[in-house]
Design brief:
The complex is a heterodimer of chains A (107) and B (117). By secondary structure, chain A is mainly beta. Helices cover 0% and strands 50% of the residues of chain A. Classes of the chains: A mainly beta (107), B mainly beta (117). At the A-B interface, strand 4 and strand 10 of A face strand 5 of B.
């Protein structure tokens, strides 16, 4: 199975900060990576697919990059609504696997 | 709009069975891969199973192989997960998701399965 490792596990930040979350795959997954945002008690929301394709309706302050084994999710200017947990997921090969999550919290 | 509504969760004893259902609306159900994803309390996300539009391609994560069976009824716009030989570690919220190319673009709110004596 492909292991997905996110860092950091917890990130403390303030409104208007620029933040970056990293996701590393245990083997190459090309660009078959998605990013999700999850708020407590809610279903995850797809932000980015194919490593960098922003989903419809997702604010442009979110961006994704990377290929192979290293990927990043960047929020250019944090807004209050962005404090949540973020997950990466590879869909290069079965079983599809998620990272362990990064909790973005108020500093 | 796309909607996915799960049902069938509940409290079951170890070794017991449950059948989860997910009714889809707002899109051409038979055209899409669908999947089940679970989240144990306070934990991360885990892909459980995945099925293509014609039920020809099916995948399971290793921990549930031989115990869970995914199926679909395109005439009823419904996805199912038959869960047998349940274990405490299967306790989680189970969500169905539309999975057009492996990622999930729409999710249901989930149904809680608790395995406990």
């Amino acid at each position: 199975d492909i292991q997905m490792t996110q860092s950091p596990s917890t990130l403390s930040a303030s409104v208007r900060d620029r933040v970056t979350i990293t996701c590393r795959a245990s083997q190459s997954i090309s660009r078959w990576l998605a990013w999700y945002q999850q708020k407590p008690g809610k279903a995850p929301n797809l932000l980015i697919s194919d490593a960098s394709r922003l989903e419809s309706g997702v604010p442009s302050r979110f961006s994704g990059s990377g290929s192979g084994t290293e990927f990043t999710l960047t929020i250019s200017s944090l807004q209050p609504d962005d404090f949540a947990t973020y997950y990466c997921q590879q869909y290069n090969s079965y079983p599809y696997t998620f990272g362990q999550g990064t909790k973005l919290e108020f500093k | 709009q796309v909607q996915l509504v799960e049902s069938g969760g509940g409290l079951v004893k170890p070794g017991g069975s449950l059948r989860l259902s997910c009714v889809a609306s707002g899109f051409a159900f038979s055209d899409y891969y669908m999947g089940w994803i679970r989240q144990a309390p306070g934990k991360g996300l885990e892909w459980v199973s995945y099925i293509d539009g014609t039920a020809t391609i099916i995948y399971y994560t290793d921990s549930i192989k031989g115990r869970f069976t995914i199926s679909r009824d395109n005439a009823k716009n419904s996805l199912y997960l038959q869960m047998n030989s349940l274990r405490a570690e299967d306790t989680a919220v189970y969500s169905c998701a539309r999975a057009p190319r492996g990622f999930s673009d729409y999710w249901g709110q989930g149904t809680l399965v608790t395995v406990s004596s």
